[in-house]
Hints:
Layout lengths: L1 E9 L2 H10 L4 E5 L2 E9 L5 H10 L4 E7 L2 H6 L2 E6 L14 H5 L20 E2 L10 E2 L8 E4 H8 L6 E8 L5 E10 L5 E3 L6 E3 L6 E3 L8 E4 L7 E8 L6 E7 H9 L5 E8 L1
Parallel strand pairs: 6-9, 14-17
Antiparallel strand pairs: 1-3, 1-4, 2-3, 5-16, 5-17, 7-8, 8-10, 9-10, 11-14, 12-13, 15-16
This protein binds zinc ion.
The site of zinc ion (ZN) has 8 residues, from loops.
Amino acid sequence: MERLHSIFANHNVDLKAFLDLHGIEHEFERSIVGETVSLVIAESHPSWPDLARHLAVNSDLLHTVGLRYSAEEISQAGFCEFQCAGQFGYPQPEAAFGYQNITYYPSIGCRSCGIGLRQVDPFRFKKPPTQRHSHVVQLNWVFDEFFLSERARLDLEGSGLTGFRIGPAVLHKSGEPLHDWYQLHIDAQLPGVIDTSTFTKELCGQCGRTKYNHPTDRQIEVRLDHGAAPDISRSPEWFGSGGSAWRSTMVSKKFVNYISSRKWRGVNLAPVLVR
Ligand SMILES: [Zn+2]
């Protein structure tokens, strides 16, 4: 596991001078927006200790921390969080989040914070996804729903893996099902809990339910109950901020090794610690 720092600054002359002086690779762009500097640097980089000291006294920038895992760490983990590498388009109708009114049961869950919504009808797409090389895609705003390419659907249907079923996704204009893309419905809940004791909490003023800001800078820890966990499941906890709410999707070692043997693309996997 490697810690990666993403840094972005505008009109930050000191940072630019520091990076040039130390020969640290970065992107620099002069435009009508200003003079922007951006870089991603691992803590294993020989100049990281110097840069860390500089960042401690240079606060006029955006600094986020993420984790990167090796293929070996991912294949050996007992469980991984499952995410898409990117999002495609918006659920329809997107104006005023109109999709919520037709995609979810009207009286289940909270429209203010998004916690607890339950799907009643297929998600509607403006146009079919164009990521021909991805096996799985996501829509913006809906971070715990996944859509499978035809090949990925065939893979999963023949996999013997548990915790899911496959259903249609629809083209909004015509109401017809998409031909080559399907929704992966994850019905199973993780038999256990995520340790949220150090996470930032948000309490909904409307319904009183809690969601957590999902950390990017540390590994998630899970306490599993006894008994077999399904190969794909969702966390009982809700994550997100503002109007967005989603559950973490967890996949078993068997799931990870299966999709890796099928060479799935477009997937991000992050090992979780199982306690
Ligand atoms: Zn709420």
